[in-house]
């Protein structure tokens, strides 16, 4: 059993996104011995690149499962092309408009009803609604990725969100009647405000991230996916924040497989608001001595010109001094693999160096 995890280069300029193609099973055997999964599709033009990548490198036009972690445009827009141009068997996507029971009472505006909230969610998340309708029209099985959901082989598992946690987040989605939560307001403020750049100095093992980072409700609704192959655990996080990652860590603590973490997607393109030192200690472990490695790879999907926002050097450092090989795509494709055939023209990448001295935004 082996796997290939391909992060496609998303974002020619400054806007980062996610498009991940995965193949696992006997990669030296036939297609019938393998499972092909897509996690997110980046922007619209990423969809075409994703289709060609799967055909050229996986040698198939069939995809067993497409997972949309959450309905932000940098994750969902390319998936329509994937569904139209490849033979997709299952689509895993949340349908918040079906979780509208009792929502009206959570808003200050007494004129809204559960039905009107459901319709508002369809309109606000039109890309997700349209993708579900397209899948249904094509006869693709649609499932919602909630905690505990497994693929047919039991190899792929959703660690979060739970249905209850997801439904608690919906009232704070963008465009809902009540004023957005503080997390949404602050995230929007930091994304748009001009921030000063200053120089930072770091000491090995010293975290320059904290446990107070907040992200939007929609980001925290991201499907967090686990893949276990030959006792190796791979963790895909979407744009999940600290709270959502803590819930996923709870699920890992309950796992009896004995699998060890070997790969982790750095959440939200390396944003400082999505990861904290406590949850990193739970998922990876405490900082190690300089030069010590744990045999774990972590990848942040970032645009070519997205720095210093994505990835944050403090986030990369937090992974690195925990013995992790941290890498950022910076608009290029990266393949992480195990027991997989070689690829002509693809070479190994060096880990991100530890940043003892770097410039970053203050916010």
Helix content: 25-40%
DSSP summary: helix tally: 11
Indicate how many domains the architecture comprises.
Answer: 1
CATH C-level class is: Alpha Beta
- Strand content is 15-25%
The helix/strand order is: EEEHEHHEHHEEHHEHEEHEHEHEEE
**What value does the average pLDDT take?**
92
Rg on CA atoms, Å: 20 Å
**What is the fold-level CATH name, i.e. the topology?**
Metallo-beta-lactamase, Chain A
Structure description:
This protein has 363 residues and is α/β, with parallel strands linked by helices. Helix content is 27%, strand content 23%. It has 11 helices and 15 strands. The strands form 3 sheets. A 7-stranded mixed sheet has the order 6-5-4-3-2-1-14. It is globular and about 60 Å long.
Question: Can I get a quick summary?
Answer:
The protein is an alpha/beta fold. The protein has helices at 44-57, 73-76, 79-85, 114-124, 126-137, 163-169, 182-192, 217-220, 242-253, 277-283, 313-320; strands at 2-7, 19-25, 34-41, 62-67, 87-92, 141-143, 156-160, 197-201, 224-229, 232-236, 260-265, 296-300, 324-328, 334-338, 357-361.
Present the secondary structure layout.
Layout: E1 2-7, E2 19-25, E3 34-41, H1 44-57, E4 62-67, H2 73-76, H3 79-85, E5 87-92, H4 114-124, H5 126-137, E6 141-143, E7 156-160, H6 163-169, H7 182-192, E8 197-201, H8 217-220, E9 224-229, E10 232-236, H9 242-253, E11 260-265, H10 277-283, E12 296-300, H11 313-320, E13 324-328, E14 334-338, E15 357-361
Parallel strand pairs: 3-4, 4-5, 5-6, 10-11, 11-12, 12-13
Antiparallel strand pairs: 1-2, 1-14, 2-3, 7-9, 8-15, 9-10
């Amino acid at each position: 059993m082996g796997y290939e995890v391909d992060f496609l280069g998303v974002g020619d300029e400054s806007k980062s996104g996610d498009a991940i193609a995965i193949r696992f099973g006997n990669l030296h055997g036939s297609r019938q011995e393998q499972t092909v999964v897509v996690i997110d599709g980046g922007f619209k033009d990423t969809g075409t690149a994703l289709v060609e990548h799967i055909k050229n490198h996986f040698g198939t036009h069939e995809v067993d499962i497409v997972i949309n972690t959450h309905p932000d445009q940098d994750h969902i827009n390319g998936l329509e092309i994937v569904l139209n141009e490849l033979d997709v068997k299952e689509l895993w996507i949340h349908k918040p408009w079906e979780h509208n029971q009792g929502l009206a009472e959570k808003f200050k505006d007494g004129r809204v009803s559960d039905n009107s909230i459901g319709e508002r969610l369809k309109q606000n998340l039109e890309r997700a609604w349209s993708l579900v309708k397209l899948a249904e029209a094509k006869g693709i099985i649609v499932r919602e990725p909630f905690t505990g959901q497994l693929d047919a082989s039991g190899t792929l598992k959703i660690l979060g969100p739970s249905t209850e946690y997801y439904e608690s987040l919906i009232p704070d989605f963008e465009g809902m009647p009540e004023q957005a939560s503080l997390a949404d307001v602050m995230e929007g403020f930091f994304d748009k405000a001009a921030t000063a750049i200053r120089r930072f100095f770091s000491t090995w093992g010293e975290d320059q991230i904290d446990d107070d980072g907040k992200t939007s409700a929609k980001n925290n609704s991201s499907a967090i996916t686990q893949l276990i192959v030959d006792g190796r655990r791979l963790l895909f996080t979407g744009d999940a924040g600290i709270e959502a990652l803590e819930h996923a860590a709870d699920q890992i603590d309950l796992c009896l497989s004995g699998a060890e973490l070997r790969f982790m997607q750095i959440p939200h393109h390396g944003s400082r608001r999505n990861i904290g030192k406590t949850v990193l200690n739970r998922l990876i472990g405490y900082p190690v001595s300089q030069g010590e490695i744990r045999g774990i790879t972590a990848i942040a999907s970032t645009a070519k010109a997205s720095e210093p926002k994505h990835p944050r050097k403090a986030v990369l450092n937090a992974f690195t001094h925990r013995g992790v090989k941290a890498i950022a795509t910076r608009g290029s494709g990266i393949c992480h693999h195990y027991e997989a055939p070689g690829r002509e023209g693809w070479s190994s990448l060096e880990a991100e160096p530890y940043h003892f001295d770097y410039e970053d935004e203050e916010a």
